[in-house]
Each structure stands twice: as C-alpha cells, then as structure tokens.
Design brief:
Four copies of one chain form a homotetramer.
Chain A: E1 9-12, H1 26-38, E2 43-44, H2 58-72, E3 79-81, H3 87-99, E4 104-108, H4 117-130, E5 134-139, H5 149-158, E6 162-167, H6 172-182, E7 190-193, H7 199-204, E8 209-211, H8 219-230, H9 234-253, H10 259-267, H11 281-300
Parallel strand pairs in A: 1-2, 1-8, 3-4, 4-5, 5-6, 6-7, 7-8
Helix pairs in contact in A: 1-2, 3-4, 4-5, 5-6, 8-9, 9-10, 9-11, 10-11
Chain lengths: 315, 315, 315, 315
C-alpha cells in the first residue's frame, strides 16, 4: 500500500472563461486561477462537471490543463479531470497530465450507457492499472453510471493507484458506508464530497474535503466553512452552511447547470463569457432574474453591491 | 401562534407483538412498552410504518393506541399514527386519540394515489382544521406522496395545529431547506428525522429529534447517540453513529421491512410473533441468516450472547 | 389445470357516486350500473383504483359489492376488487364476494411497503391457496409493488386459482413477455390491460381485454374500439384509439386521479357527487377548466352539447 | 414547408468492427455494409448508440461515415449520427456529412447534463438553423435528456430542417401523442421507433419505420416483420414480433449494451472484434453464456448451426 498523505481540503472545479468567439479565453483563465489561489482554495480541479468537460473537444481539454498547470506553478496541487472517449484515450490523457505535473486525475464513471457495477469496476481497473498518476473515482449518479459501495471497496483493495473518491450524490449515509468499508484497509484513501449543500455534516462524519462548485464563486465562504468545521466551531459552521445552501440552491436550481455559477462568477468580476449551450429567450430572462437574486446574496456577504433597485428584505 | 415547547427527543415507532393466532398480543405489547420506557426513549410512536399500521384493521389501530396509552400512564408522551381511509375517518381517529390523552398525532401523506403538492396541501389542511390535537406531518417519499418544502411552509403558516414534521427521506439538505423556510416564523415547529442512518448529522444541523426504528430494538444506543450529540461530544457520537448505521443497514436491507427489526427485537427478548405478511421458504432462510448477523452485532454491543458457532472477526 | 374460458372483454372499473353527506349514493350507483350495462360493457369491476377502494372503509367496500351484485342480477359478470389490510382479511373478503356470486376477484399487489418479487409471490400464493373464487392479479407499478414476469409465471404455474392478470403499466413489451411465459402452459390464463391509451395495440399483440377507466365514462367508445380491433378493422380502430387517447389524457393528467373521470361522468348525467379527497380552491378551478375541455371532446363524439361559449376549433 | 417523402423503412444502426489493435477494421466494416444491404435493410444508420459513437474520437466518427458513404455508393440512403461536443462542432459535422452525401443526420438529445425542455429546444433549434442537411431528433430518455411532446411540436413547427424523430423510449402512447401533435401540420415528418420489442404495434399505430439494433444482426427478420405488418398480415407479423422480442431481450439484457449484439453478430460471420469497454472475467463468462443462448435462437431461425452440445427444448 502506498504511503502518502490523504488528499484534503477544498478542491475548486473551475469554470472556463470563453471569449467573444466562444474560444478558451486564456488570459482570463489565468487571472481566474490567481484569483482563486489568492482566496485560499487548496486545490484546483479543472475539467470537472462545473468545467463542462463534455462541451470541449479533446484538444481543448488538454489545453485547459496546460494553461492551469503553467499558471499555477505549483502554488496549489491540481486534480485534473481526465475522462476521454474510451480507456485508451483516457490513459493517454493521464500520461500527458502526469507530465504536466498534476497531483492526481479524476475519472468520472462511464456515462451515456448505464453500466452495471461489474462494468464500472472493469473500466476503472483498466485505467488504474495503466495510469502513471494517482486516480480519483468520480461518482455522480445523476449524470453517470453509479459507483456502488462494493465496487469502491474492490477498487480500493485491488488498485493502489486509486487514492480517493469524489462523490456528488449528497447522500450522507452512502458516504459513511464507503468510509466504513474502505478506511480500515486503506487509511490513505480520501473521501471528498461534491455536494456543497452538505459540506459541514460530510466533514463531521469523516470526509477529507470537498470538490465544491461554490468554491469557484465564493472561495472565501467555502474555505471558511471548511476551517470552522475542522476547528470544531459547530455553531458558526452551521450558520455558514445554511447561508452557503441558499446560494448553492439559487445557482443550481434556477438555471441549467452550470449557468447559475457562471452568472454568479461574472458578478465577482471574472469575464466568463457566454456558455456553449444555446439558450432560448425565456432562458435568458430566467438567467437575468437569477443573477439579480445571486447579487443580493453576494451583497449580503459583502462581495458585491446590491443590484440597482435594491434587494427584498429577508424574513 | 401557539406558545409551546418544541417536540424533542427520541420517538420510538414500536412493532406490535402478535400471538400465535396473529392477533395483537396485549400482555407482550404492555411489557414492551415498559421495556422501552425503562431504556430511556422519550416518546412512544405507535401506528407508524414500523408498526405496520396498514396491516391492521381500523379497529385494531384504535385498540393499539388504547393499550399503549393505558400502559404508559403518562410516563412518556405519545405520538399516535392516525391516518385512516379518508379525512373524515382520520379526523375521527384524531378525536379519539385526543380523548385517550396522546400529545400529538402523526399523519402520513396520502399514499397509493400519488398526489400533487396542491393535493397534499388540501389533505393536511382539511385534517389540521378539524383535529382537536396537534398534528405532525409525516413525509416518507419512498412509500407515500412527497411533502415538498413549499407545502411544509404553507401548512406551517396556515395551520397552528401542525406543529412538526417527521421526515424519513434521509436527505439532509432537504431537512435544512425545511428548517430555513419555517423556523423563523414558527419557532415552535419541530423537525424530526426518521432516518436513523443520519441521526447525528441531522441533529447537528438543527433537527429536534428522531423517530427511529432502531430505538425500538436498541433504545440504549439511539438514546445515547442523541445525548452525546447534544452534548457536543462529536467524536464519540460519530463512532456510535457508524455502529448504529451497521445495525440499521442489516435490519433494513436484508429483509422486507420491518421483518429485520422484528427478528432483532426477538433477540432482545420481546415475543414479537410472526408478521402478517406471508414469507416464502427462501425469505425465511434469509431471515434466519439476518438474525444471526444481527445477533453478532448485538453481542458486540453487549446486548446478547454470540450465536452458537460464534461470529466472524471484523476487519 | 382448470378448464374454463378465458376472461375477455371490456371490464368497467366504476366510480362510486356519493351523496351530499359523502356517503355511498345507493340509488345513483344502481342507476349507473344499469347505464353501463345498457351501453355494452362486458364486465363490472368495482373496488378498483378508479373506484377509490382505499378511500372507503372495509364495511363500505363490502356494501359496494353487495349493491352492485344485487343490481346486476347476473346480466354481466363481476370482477370484485378484494384487497384488504392483510391476507386474512383479504381472504375473508374473497369468501364473502364469492357468496355474493362474483365471477372473480382482483387483488392489487401489496402497496405502501414496496415488496421484493419474493414477497409479492408469497402474498399472492397465500391468498390464492385459500380463496374460494378465481383470482386476478393486479399490477399497477406506479402505485403498488411491481409484479414482475417471473413472479407471474410462478403464480400461474403453482396456483390454478390465479386465472388472469390486469396490468396497468402500459408497457407493451412487458405484456408480450408475460404472454410468452404463461400462455403455453396456461391457455386459460387471461391478460387484461388497464392502460386505455394502448388498448388497440394491446389487443393486437394478444391481450384478452381491458379494464379501462374510460369505459366508465364513454362505454360506447371503449366497447366499439374493442369490437373494431377484434374484427380486424385496423384503420377505423386506430382512428378511434387516437380519439380515446385524447379523452384519456385530459381526464388523467389534468387533475388528481380519478377526479377527471368523475367530472366527465357528471357530464354524462351521472350524479357522482364530490370525491372524498379534499380540493384546494386552485384545484377546483383546474377541475372546472378540465370539465369544459372534456365537454368539448364529448360533444365532438355526440354525447353532450358544447359548453356555453363553444369549443375551440381543432387543428 | 418542404415537399418531400417521409423517411421510411428499416434503418440499421451498425456496430463498427474493430481489428486486433482496437482500431476501426475498415475491410470488415465495408463487408458488413454489403452484407446488410444484401439482406434488405432500407437505410444505414452509423454513429448511433449501437454504433457506440461516444467510444470513438471525433476523428474516428468522421472516418466511419466516410467509409460507409464510400462503400454504400448510393445503394441505400444514410442517416448519420452527428452529435459532437457542442453545437458548433455538431454543425461542422453536419456540413461534412452533407458533403459526403448522407440523406439526413440524427442528433441525440444533450446527454451527461440533464437539460430542461427549454434547453433541449434551444439546442436543437441552434443546430437545425445552421445544418445544411435534414435533421432527425433522437430521443433516448434512458441515456439522454428527454425530448417531450411539446418540444417536438415546437421544433416541427419552427424548423423545416427537422424532418423526423427517432424515439427509443418504447412508450407507445407517447409515440401516438407525438404523431397527434405533429402530423397534421407537418405531413412530411417521420416517426421512427428505436424499440425493436414494439416494432409491429408501433407501425400499426402510425410509425414510418424503425431504427432497430436487431436489424444489424438479423436484418432478414426485422425487414420481414416490417413487410408483413405493412401488408396487414397481422397474425404472421405478431408471431414474428414475439420471436424477435425473445432475441432482442437476450441480446439487450444479458450483457452491457451493445455487447450482446456484438456477440450475436459474430455468430453471423462478421468479425466484430472486441469492444472498447473493458470486461471483467465474470462479464466475459456471462457473454459466453449469452452467445450460446443467442446461437440457439439463431439456429431456430435457420441462420446458424446449434452450438456444440445442442440447445434446450423450448416449452
């Protein structure tokens, strides 16, 4: 078994700024990387779901990692999303990202086709056996084939390269079941939650950190929530978790994912550009309303001014 | 708005012991009531899902409350499941249980037909407007029409009689959303979790207690978990929550609900009798295997001896 | 194996008219029975989902069968819904309905608790082994535990009393799979579809009939669709199926089930009374709009006048 | 509105043969194209789900269409799957496939992210407004964002380029609802079913054809089923549909899709090679058992010999 520290902390799945032509906006992406590191995120996590990895070409996904690795210059470690069309292409991406110096890769469970647990196991086993860099499993059952508890256990037991799981199900007992099954035999294995709405309780029951889309927008809050929880300041942490939940819900449920996060990031001064998924006129109106609502929440936290016309008084 | 204390603590949804003819075993039910109270549960909660209310006749459901109210003699308050075939019958049950002295009734959301939020609202509104006793909403989306957050809020605002919700979804952010929406305007409103697997984190984010099937089998553990969590002893509470989860999972997932709980209760010395749902030979074999597994877990906790032949060594 | 004719034809799941006090309106129920028989339905099917069996008390369910058996006087056979709180109560209902002269009973799969296939099998086996009257399985997976294909096969093989299945899933290949598995060894076994939207294609792939809620409202159409399909007049049948679908969809999806059917039945001159499920003001408004829409569809078919103000011209 | 014939017939979604290195086996793909055309399929449909479009790179997807267009030489029209990472890439693929002479492209609804109906509409609208070739919508709700009936109607009304929908839900009333909403205003719009299990009833209620994975393995049967149904020979068509269902179910449910189809195709003499999704040893054993079972079914139809050791006698 490998001897290493568990992956820990706040992992930020970054949105990729686009220019007016819809191409990767490299200078703004570099500026955004600095902005995030300055605000205390522990890791960068490009090519995640928030990063819309499926909407970029294979070449663009590589370019994103190149830019981020270059700009980060080792200030924080990188967890690079590396899933490609099939295991061979994915392993090639792992090799390339390894050369670029990333600390680990994250591989989402197979999607489109819904695979059985046995198929999910075979997929990750093949990749883990050939990857030159540590692998984080990525379970997001609303989008991809679920990775069930026995499969996590088998992979943890048979694949030293697999060092963590990122779980975006938000199901707390499910997380506890995974920790129960794996931690004793793999004390180096990390458990990360991708569900910002439950970050505090997830940390309290034993998670090592979070891969949280909110940390790309309000890194100050997500990081502080992490610190307060680890310091055992439960009352303050709970209060902050409730405020983060409100922000998370507005950004997540009022628009197609991740448009709400993109709109909010714009309010923080990052020139995100428009996303690649077309929007109908009524969707654009919804998004404007959402931006206003987010601005009020950000203003409450002191990150922006209130929108013109002011904000409703809270209950 | 009514001025009263929030409902708090561990609410035990009791199984109903049956005799050899399949009838309610009154002496054993009385003995079980004493056994539970002696072990520290704060409330009794008859005619819940664990109590298999749907498998008894309307007359039997009334008889169960009569026996429990009589035996309890006010030592602990009673939350009585009161759902009947339609609102008129339900209101009559509320009236009768009120006369018997129960502190509140619990009404499960309409089941069989899946109602819209508007239908769920109209149903509870009608009952709350006519019940002479406080009403707890009971949300169990795997079995009954879901009660969504806006509906909880509307009912809390319009119905002073509605004083609590029991939520068995196990969804922690959902619980936080309900608390967010209701607590400010109804500080007397209680939030109870019916998902034993998440009791500790649910309490930590603001729940007032739990209606937990495990508390009918190992009341000592569920109660201790509650006390440790409220005392802020997070590390010990977490450890106990993991042990309770193991027991809960075996009892819940290895047999048709609530057969696993019934089998476990037998190991604690309560003569539960057989349930009313027929079992095939292969189901009976499964149940025997489950009982053995539960006995090992109970033996670890010091509640029983190990089964003949011993138990596997844990990891 | 029993030698008997397969159950065939259109089975009408009747709504139960209620009086102003919400009690069973016996004279109107009797009039409705005659009305249905006069319009050509082959069977009556009281205490089904359309008949809201769960919203009546056990006593009322018996009374409904008494009235219908008495009024029918053998003009058409009766399939009586007989599910009660547990197998013992259900078997007693089977015995009573047998005495009343029903041709068969229909037993819905266990609901509220979601049982495994093994549990579903054990439940029906117990009932079939003790029922003095033929049993129809009732599969309605949106409301009750699903009855899967292997379970239907096991029950058909082991229980001569089980003579049919009513399937309301609307899943055509599922119906074909059941027929494939059972017909060779049980040529006397009937397959009935409860999904009016697919009646014609279901008959064409081998179903013996339908238990169709629309036949309680427009018995003329449902019966004619059955006759045209059996006569091989595919083009006319298809046209009628499309018209029935439009009516079915409006009644099913524009209100809580079965309120749309009740509203439509009122337009046919049956005094249904209000249902037992409370309605909010906004639900009442929706229902009024639905009634208007249904009236236009009924007027097109020549069953009623157009509503005051007329109907929109169809595309 | 464009004046053209509706797309009709059997569309074959072809598997792509791979060589020992896992690369596209061009000579075998060419031989397979001829084999299919010789056996009477009306259309070829490369880069569908059966063709595992997601497991090839963007370059490989283009190469597949090049080979098939070249080999087909206009003997049958081509429907080319053209979905790429985003709308811009997809439109470029449409342009290229247009140059290659395909009759239409098929675009699967957005997957991974689950989009709202509004998002699905905006996506297809953008593509349809810029594609130089006719577009078929592809609805496969088990894998991708569902395309609901109002969205199909809006697209049919606003986009003359959208000329058909391929629906793989297998939901017959859903197909009827789409036909109801669209056919009157767009008589040139085609409805194709991707659910082989219901091909005959789908044709009987008005579908124009099928995109059926079985037609890549037993084109003789799928084509004959189409012909019999259109000729009104219902009894023979029904019999064949039941036999096709048996084959379809074995290939679909006994292995990860499309491994069962690949294994069966090998039995027909096409050198498919192994798929790109890794298989565990237990999956390989399952696949061997499936191949044996398929061989028995193919032998019954006269396409192969029975496997060594013979086949079980059917009921």
């Amino acid at each position: 078994m490998p001897e290493h520290e568990r992956l820990r902390g706040i992992f930020t799945p970054n949105i990729v700024p686009l220019d007016n032509c819809g191409e990767i906006h490299e200078p703004e992406l570099r500026r955004y990387v600095d902005w995030l590191i300055d605000r205390g995120v522990h890791w960068l996590y490009p090519n995640g779901s928030t990063g819309e990895f499926t909407r970029f070409t294979a070449e663009e996904r590589r370019r994103i990692i190149e830019i981020i690795a270059d700009q980060t210059e080792g200030r924080v470690p990188i967890l690079a999303g590396a899933a490609e069309a099939n295991t061979r292409e994915t392993i090639r991406a792992c090799e390339y990202y390894c050369e670029l110096g990333v600390r680990a890769v994250a591989i989402v469970s197979p999607f489109y086709y819904k695979l059985s647990p046995e198929g999910v196991f075979a997929y990750f086993k093949e990749i883990a056996d050939h990857s030159p860099v540590d692998v984080t499993l990525y379970n997001i059952p609303m989008f991809a084939s679920p990775i069930d508890v026995p499969t996590v256990r088998r992979l943890a037991e048979q694949c030293p390269r697999v060092v963590a799981i990122k779980d975006s199900s938000g199901d707390l007992p499910h997380m506890m079941r995974m920790i129960s099954e794996v931690r004793a035999s793999r004390p180096d294995f990390s458990f990360l939650t991708g569900w910002d709405a439950a970050l505090m309780p997830m940390l309290l029951i034993g998670c090592d950190g979070g891969t949280n889309a909110t940390s790309g927008v309000v890194p100050e809050i997500t990081r502080k929530l992490y610190d307060l929880t680890l310091a055992g300041q439960i009352d303050q942490a709970r209060d902050l978790q409730y405020r983060l939940l409100r922000l998370f819900d507005v950004m997540l449920y009022s628009a197609e994912f991740p448009e709400g996060f993109r709109a909010a990031l714009r309010l923080r001064g990052i020139q995100t550009g428009a996303g690649r998924q077309p929007k109908s006129p009524s969707q654009q109106l919804q998004l404007d309303a959402l931006a206003r609502q987010v601005q009020c929440l950000l203003a409450e936290e002191g990150f922006t001014d209130e929108p013109v016309g002011g904000c409703p008084t809270l209950l």
